[in-house]
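Re: the pair you flagged

First of the two:
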Amino acid sequence: MLVANLIKNMLFSGDFSGYFSTFAPSAADEPEPVVLAEGPFERESRIEGEERGTVPMSVLVVREDAEEAESLAIALEAFLRGAEWEPFSESGPWRIVGLDTTAPAFRERDSSGRFVYEFTVEVTAVRAV
């Protein structure tokens, strides 16, 4: 789906640099990624020509340093919560009409020993059909 790419473009507009991915890359390929893992679209309603629903997205911030992972996760979540998302709201059949976030929290130390912080973005989207 393209919703993760819309969120990624919003983050780029906030001057967040680094490596953003829609899948978890190998630590050898990218040691400190931000992963935007998109869940399935869940339809809530349908009218002629479009359906409306939600797309859950996990944002995983992976860093060697725990404080850096936590502070970046907090900054990313705060940016998305308050961002002007309308300029980035459409791509292909998708149109974002709202979003909500959860507070970032420590998730785990991965198999490479890196710290992973996570928060969720609940995207309300309309899909043209």
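Second of the two:
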Amino acid sequence: MTFAIVAFLIGGLTFNASAQSKTTKTKGQVVNTQNPKVGTNQTTTNYDQMLKDFETNIDKYIAAYEKAMKGTADKNDFMTYQKKALDLQAKLEKAKDKLNQNQVDQFLKLKAKLAEALKRK
């Protein structure tokens, strides 16, 4: 009985191992049906989009802050944009070594813009 169970397990493992990757030819085309590796990070971060979002939040923060100072807007509105801008700044700060030179220059320019806006309090 034990032999049958061991043989079944070994046969099952062999079948599973060979089923993970399969390359077939179809009318002159090679098709790889290999499953993607589990645990690989397939997401890429779009730093250009993050920089655009950072700039948008800074601009919205400044506009909302100016309205709030005039008494025409809710002060919580500009606090929301400020928090989002600071969160994006922290993420970009962590990824600074992955940015190209143009992105770094833009990030530094936007940080200065945010710092200037934060001084207006």
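Confidence is low (pLDDT under 50) at residues 13-21, 35-43.

-B.
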